[in-house]
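Quick one, C-alpha cells below. Sequence please?
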C-alpha cells in the first residue's frame, strides 16, 4: 500500500509539469548556458535556475549536469528534451492553426479511401478550398478513426449505428471478388455468389463489407478473419482464401498475384460520409457535395 501511495504521489508530481518548464529546459540545452537561456526567454538567470529545479523535482530526476563553463543533459535529460520538443512543437502547431485562420481537415478511412475518386477528390479540394488543408488518415476501426478522435470526417462502407454520428450516402460501389491470379474463377469476366460456396472467405469483421450473411444459410462459405488489407491480400494471393470487397479496394490496392472480378448478383456497397452530430466540421457539407458529385459522374 505504501508503494502504491508513493507511485500515486509521483504521478501527481509529473502531472504538474508545465509548458514553461519544458521551454526552459529546451532553451538551456539549445543556448548552452543558463545566462544565454535567460536572454532567449526574456527572464532572469535566477528564474531559469528555479524553473529547471522545479521541473527536476516534478520528474524526480536530474536532467542537466552543470560545470563552470557548460551545461549538458544527463541520459534522462536527453530523453526528456526529446519529448519536450515534440510536446512544444504540437502546442505551437495548435496555436498557429487556431490563430492563423487556416483550417485543417482530416478524413479517415479504414481500407481504401475513395478508390479511383481519391486523387480527383484531393486535387479538386486543394484547388477549390486552399484555405483548408486536407489530410487522409487510414485508421482500421469501425468508424475509420472518428470515434477515436483521429479524424474530423470519416468515409465508411457500413452505416454507423452510433447515435453520436450523423452520416449520409455519397455514392455506391460495385462488390468485387478478390482471388489468386491462378484461381480457375480468374478466367471468368465475373462471378456469382454461388461460385464461392465451398470456398474459404477471408473477412475483416470490424471494418469490412462482407459477412457470410450474403449467402443463404445452406450455401455459406467457410470464414477466416483478418484485420488489415495488406494481410488480406497476402493470404488471398496464396489461393487459400478468396475475398469480396468494394471496388475501391481494387483501385487502391492492385497487387501482383491477385485479380478482382465483379460479383454480378451482389448488391452494390454504399459509401457513407460520417461526422460528429454535436460538432460537425465546417467543411462537412462541402466534402459531401464534392464526393456526391464525383460518385455521381461515374
Amino acid at each position: 500500500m505504501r508503494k502504491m501511495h508513493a507511485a500515486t504521489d509521483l504521478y501527481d508530481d509529473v502531472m504538474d509539469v508545465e509548458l514553461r518548464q519544458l521551454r526552459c529546459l529546451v532553451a538551456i540545452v539549445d543556448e548552452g548556458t543558463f545566462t544565454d537561456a535567460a536572454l532567449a526567454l526574456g527572464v532572469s538567470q535566477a528564474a531559469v535556475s528555479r524553473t529547471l529545479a522545479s521541473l527536476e523535482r516534478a520528474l524526480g530526476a536530474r536532467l542537466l549536469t552543470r560545470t563552470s563553463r557548460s551545461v549538458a543533459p544527463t541520459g534522462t535529460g536527453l530523453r526528456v528534451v526529446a519529448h519536450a520538443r515534440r510536446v512544444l512543437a504540437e502546442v505551437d502547431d495548435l496555436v498557429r492553426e487556431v490563430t492563423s485562420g487556416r483550417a485543417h481537415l482530416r478524413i479517415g478511412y479504414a481500407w481504401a479511401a475513395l478508390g479511383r475518386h481519391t486523387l480527383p477528390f484531393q486535387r479538386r479540394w486543394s484547388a477549390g478550398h486552399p484555405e483548408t488543408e486536407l489530410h487522409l488518415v487510414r485508421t482500421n476501426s469501425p468508424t475509420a478513426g472518428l470515434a477515436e478522435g483521429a479524424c474530423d470526417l470519416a468515409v465508411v462502407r457500413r452505416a454507423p449505428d452510433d447515435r453520436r454520428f450523423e452520416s449520409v450516402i455519397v455514392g455506391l460501389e460495385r462488390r468485387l471478388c478478390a482471388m489468386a491470379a491462378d484461381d480457375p474463377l480468374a478466367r471468368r469476366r465475373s462471378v456469382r455468389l454461388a461460385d464461392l460456396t465451398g470456398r474459404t472467405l477471408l473477412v475483416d469483421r470490424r471494418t469490412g463489407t462482407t459477412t457470410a450473411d450474403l449467402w443463404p444459410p445452406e450455401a455459406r462459405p467457410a470464414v477466416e478473419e483478418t484485420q488489415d488489407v495488406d494481410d488480406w491480400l497476402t493470404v488471398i494471393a496464396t489461393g487459400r482464401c478468396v475475398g469480396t470487397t468494394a471496388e475501391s479496394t481494387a483501385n487502391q490496392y492492385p497487387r501482383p498475384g491477385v485479380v478482382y472480378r465483379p460479383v454480378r448478383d451482389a448488391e452494390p456497397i454504399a459509401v457513407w460520409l460520417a461526422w460528429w452530430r454535436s460538432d460537425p466540421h465546417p467543411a462537412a457539407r462541402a466534402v459531401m457535395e464534392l464526393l456526391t458529385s464525383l460518385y455521381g459522374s461515374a
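The longest strand covers residues 165-173. The two ends are 66 Å apart (CA to CA).
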